[in-house]
Amino acid sequence: MTVPSTPITRRPEARAANSLRPLAITRGYAPYAEGSALIQLGGTHVLCTASVLDKVPGFMKGQGRGWVTAEYGMLPRATHTRGDREAARGKQSGRTQEIQRLVGRSLRAVFDLEALGERTLQIDCDVIQADGGTRCASITGAWVAAADAVDWLIARGDLSASPLRDHVAAVSVGLVQGQPLLDLDYPEDSGCDADVNVVMTGSGHLVEVQGTAEGLAFSRAELDHLLDLAQAGIGQLVEGQKACRAG
Amino acid sequence: MTVPSTPITRRPEARAANSLRPLAITRGYAPYAEGSALIQLGGTHVLCTASVLDKVPGFMKGQGRGWVTAEYGMLPRATHTRGDREAARGKQSGRTQEIQRLVGRSLRAVFDLEALGERTLQIDCDVIQADGGTRCASITGAWVAAADAVDWLIARGDLSASPLRDHVAAVSVGLVQGQPLLDLDYPEDSGCDADVNVVMTGSGHLVEVQGTAEGLAFSRAELDHLLDLAQAGIGQLVEGQKACRAG
Amino acid sequence: MTVPSTPITRRPEARAANSLRPLAITRGYAPYAEGSALIQLGGTHVLCTASVLDKVPGFMKGQGRGWVTAEYGMLPRATHTRGDREAARGKQSGRTQEIQRLVGRSLRAVFDLEALGERTLQIDCDVIQADGGTRCASITGAWVAAADAVDWLIARGDLSASPLRDHVAAVSVGLVQGQPLLDLDYPEDSGCDADVNVVMTGSGHLVEVQGTAEGLAFSRAELDHLLDLAQAGIGQLVEGQKACRAG
Amino acid sequence: MTVPSTPITRRPEARAANSLRPLAITRGYAPYAEGSALIQLGGTHVLCTASVLDKVPGFMKGQGRGWVTAEYGMLPRATHTRGDREAARGKQSGRTQEIQRLVGRSLRAVFDLEALGERTLQIDCDVIQADGGTRCASITGAWVAAADAVDWLIARGDLSASPLRDHVAAVSVGLVQGQPLLDLDYPEDSGCDADVNVVMTGSGHLVEVQGTAEGLAFSRAELDHLLDLAQAGIGQLVEGQKACRAG
Amino acid sequence: MTVPSTPITRRPEARAANSLRPLAITRGYAPYAEGSALIQLGGTHVLCTASVLDKVPGFMKGQGRGWVTAEYGMLPRATHTRGDREAARGKQSGRTQEIQRLVGRSLRAVFDLEALGERTLQIDCDVIQADGGTRCASITGAWVAAADAVDWLIARGDLSASPLRDHVAAVSVGLVQGQPLLDLDYPEDSGCDADVNVVMTGSGHLVEVQGTAEGLAFSRAELDHLLDLAQAGIGQLVEGQKACRAG
Amino acid sequence: MTVPSTPITRRPEARAANSLRPLAITRGYAPYAEGSALIQLGGTHVLCTASVLDKVPGFMKGQGRGWVTAEYGMLPRATHTRGDREAARGKQSGRTQEIQRLVGRSLRAVFDLEALGERTLQIDCDVIQADGGTRCASITGAWVAAADAVDWLIARGDLSASPLRDHVAAVSVGLVQGQPLLDLDYPEDSGCDADVNVVMTGSGHLVEVQGTAEGLAFSRAELDHLLDLAQAGIGQLVEGQKACRAG
């Protein structure tokens, strides 16, 4: 797999086309939650918490299986201009619902729900500061929060083994003026021709691929190139997850 | 591009893995709309209408550009068991919003919004009968409705040339027990390991790729195989669009 | 009972003042529903389904009696100009609620709820195309869907005898420029001085009479005349129900 | 017109089948409103106000015509057992919407909207105490409030002549154990076989007839009998309106 | 405690700075409620009802304790200009919610919830006419309704002793052009620099103090002065409660 | 003013009855906002932002005056057990609305709205971590964010002088087992007999006093004692505001 490594002069701070923004994950940022992590990927900061609830949705009751679900929000002034507060407007936008469904599916893909037992792992991803890629950062951070909540369950003796089968992380890639770039920031994302959000497991399998042509449609070859870039980036994000969990 | 052509005995009516379900597109099904089409793909029937509105959303006013947007709905008893009526429940589900945003983006990808002029093409996709693949059928049918509405605008002298740059169509593909299948029906979709909704232009460029692992994550090779299947299927759907418009 | 039979030249296709529009009822139009019918009365097309649900509303639980209820909707582009989608707006209009309550009451009037047993017959009436008289067509079509759902229950052995006591059908009548007309289409309805929606049983008893002066109030004599017209029309609609059920 | 005048021993306080409950209309009950009336019909008390608003709904702007519209509500403990507060529940029931649409239509039937000028007469009917027949009492009381608001407009010089063409009043009639009764109270209404709400002008023309079979469908002869009863009752209500306005 | 008794010429009807408006409390105004009172304080009229419900909120079930809660509403034309109907708008304003929470807390402060037993006393305060001070009048009137509902429970034998520990009443005080005034009417309230709503028990203890600077912030000395005024006023309101209950 | 300074052994970390929790204010925490501050008061952390919007609410247009308003939210897992996400539930609770109205009023009390010019200062207070006193911390932090936004307006030349007339800050005080305590944490707040939220200007004038008896009503002497405690605490909070703005 070869991806262009020449730094593009246009990226801020001389970032290479195939480089992630600086990554920092702070475990335990929300002290009351069973698991939590503040993930900072450049100017994008998301607080992810995992809450253990002793119940499952109605349609799953009595089956002995657990559930993992997610909600997503953005502080009104996480962005360059203030956005409406969804609670005040009285409903979540289509975008918000799309993202929280994606986060939930992504986490469930690496959970053995039978092994989790009849309880819910409720993920909350709240964007404190937004500079592009908030849905991907949410997934990457949520995995850390979830893993810590699993540890908490094991430490209490509620679980004897982990229901987590693998890591899961996500990154966005896109074509900006025809050039494939890894981990788009907000200005890059706004101006790109196509972007793809890729969710992968630690072992390199795909969980979600969401590619969208913002302007011009893209070719199979371009998609392949972007997926290569994403795979390399996700490898680094998974390393980041491992490092912070080891720390 | 080689895709397996051996018929799988499990598919209803001996359909091959790389075969679409029977396709029928009826133009002008909704006589009051500026453009309309009933698309039937096997047991999935969607009524698509395109309405010309002499206004654009507030954020676009005065720019001389047009807009294309879509709404999606499903009759409560389009499905095997009755679903809630969203109007009665007082809100659209996350799934509905996700689909209608996808349909809108897909159509916009082939429209020259400048050439459309300051008006809105409002697409409505209403599922009369649902047997899997309703979002893809909606896109394929909506293109026909939109093309007819464009003809109506040209016939009235409101437009001198078509703002439509290409066809756009969509199909779902998935891995069922490890085997790649084209155009999943509802039982196949419910039981698949991974499914990918692919939206492509008539010239074979990708507009959207939405791949989701329902159970196990999938490999790059599997994704490639599925995209090959989808591309061939979309070619046939575009032929169907052309045939019905020629008819 | 004498009603004017001279054709009025103003009605489309030389329809007489006391003539219904052409009627067609297609049973089983929604194959997944326990009962269904597409009713077409001229340019008004309504898809009616009857779903059997194994529950009753909370206030009826444990009484051994059943319930019949209805919901109504209209596709956004069923009409000459596009109407708002109620699901997107987040609530049903007063008109929609009024109609669905009327359809439910009308059907209940011919059902023996004790004999139905503790289950709900959920009627859905969705207007595919609207040219006036949609609430009346909904009632007439819903009866066929309900009768087929009852047959389904009997065929399964869930019921030994039919809880349906009679036919029920409905028609609108109105005064247009002083002249009583049967089965108003949309232009007639928009321009009439008074219209009356009449719901009757097969044996000619009144279930609902909803008369409204749109412009000028009307006299008792005019009401009598309109009720005569309606009664004759409903007789023909009941014949249509019988014919399609016999077919 | 002959209606039974023999007192039925079952009616409270020996009321005859063709007798109204005691009627009292208090003008000016809401001192801040341009017009207002508290109508008391036996145990049913409704406060009706008419507010003059210097605007019309968007669809009527610039046409020089006015509008008359109504809203209806019931205090939670107007009834024998407490009902939900609609404002707390976040929506008006179907019943409430049906009633307020009826009140608005009934008032508009006696208004010359051109003569009213480009302003809105906003009627509010709030049930303080409910013992059956609240929608009919609302119409009868609203007419008095509206007439007083018209006087206020004339007194200010905003109107030179009254846009009110006639009186309008309403009453319910019903079949209770086969016997036609005028002006049903709540127990009678709950137990009746059929009830008809009749809205009539002062000159005896029909504005609305809303007949509903609660149990058994009713015959044309029964409807005729009920309409006779209603007409006599409405005559007395109109006398009450005149008397209180003269007072 | 010395408060200025010199009449201020500006107050309507030569009311003194430390005088309440004329007070009248009519018990049993809502005959169907277990307890009710119409409180009239000058031009402010509030109908308060207390309904006994045989249930408690979910979070209190099975604890053997009761609950007291309140809802508040205002008729659209209780005020000088018509306000929106909250039921029609689909939600209660922040102001309404604030008031009903205050009324509930105030009543609970004088109730022994254990002694009430596992039932709810549901208070409804509906403003029929508003001339300032509606939240305070609601509390004062609600106490009378609640006390009567308690008597009803005792008379039925459902309670052997009263769970009411004390009276509770409320009044507003404010600084108008620097002068402390008791029981502000609407024009005074609109123009005041600061106003304080004070809720006190019959024994003179504070239940709630809600002071707000509308314009300029106020000093501790001014607050003290206002609380003195309020205490005297509440003493008179409690006398009014006692008098009407004795009557 | 003398307040008890003996440390109470029960308070965590040997905090004295008249001591605030450790205070830290971080300016510029939200880099995209015109002004922002993260305020940490012990375990309570609130992110406050001030956004400058070039518009005012409809009712203020064209008057040349500005507006200051606030919204408040709490992350679902800011608390010991997870709370519902208000955006997902579709409405803000009464408590949330009460708080955001209080924050808005408190800030407006120190703003010269004429001098602000026709623009809105939109305050957002989002609780990242909650251990009692979030509404008071919101006010204290919001002042810093607002002051920085004012500086931003002055630096841009949009304002020549500051419309801020004074500091404003807030603290909660309460009676816990009869003892007056300053700055309650969550366990103290849950168990207190009475608590008072006090909002004061830098010059020691009262802006808001919201005292509530949770259990037993409190005496005037107790209120006085609590207000003394609050005044001293607010003095320290204002010092904190000054220190961080000087830093």
Topology:
Six copies of one chain form a homohexamer.
Chain A lengths: L22 E5 L7 E7 L2 E10 L13 E8 L11 H4 L4 H15 L4 H4 L3 E10 L4 H22 L12 E9 L2 E4 L3 H6 L2 E8 L4 E8 L6 H27 L1
Catalytic activity (chains A, B, C, D, E, F): tRNA(n+1) + phosphate = tRNA(n) + a ribonucleoside 5'-diphosphate
EC number (chains A, B, C, D, E, F): 2.7.7.56
Family (chains A, B, C, D, E, F): Belongs to the RNase PH family.
Task: Encode the helix/strand succession of chain A as letters.
Answer: EEEEHHHEHEEHEEH
The CATH level-2 architecture of chain A is identified as: 2-Layer Sandwich
Estimated radius of gyration of chain A: 18 Å
CATH class of chain A: Alpha Beta
Give the biggest sheet of chain A: 5 strands, mixed
For this entry, give a set of tags.
five-stranded mixed beta sheet; alpha+beta; tRNA processing (chains A, B, C, D, E, F); transferase (chains A, B, C, D, E, F); four-stranded antiparallel beta sheet; rRNA processing (chains A, B, C, D, E, F); homohexamer; tRNA binding (chains A, B, C, D, E, F); 9 strands; Ribosomal Protein S5, domain 2; 247 residues
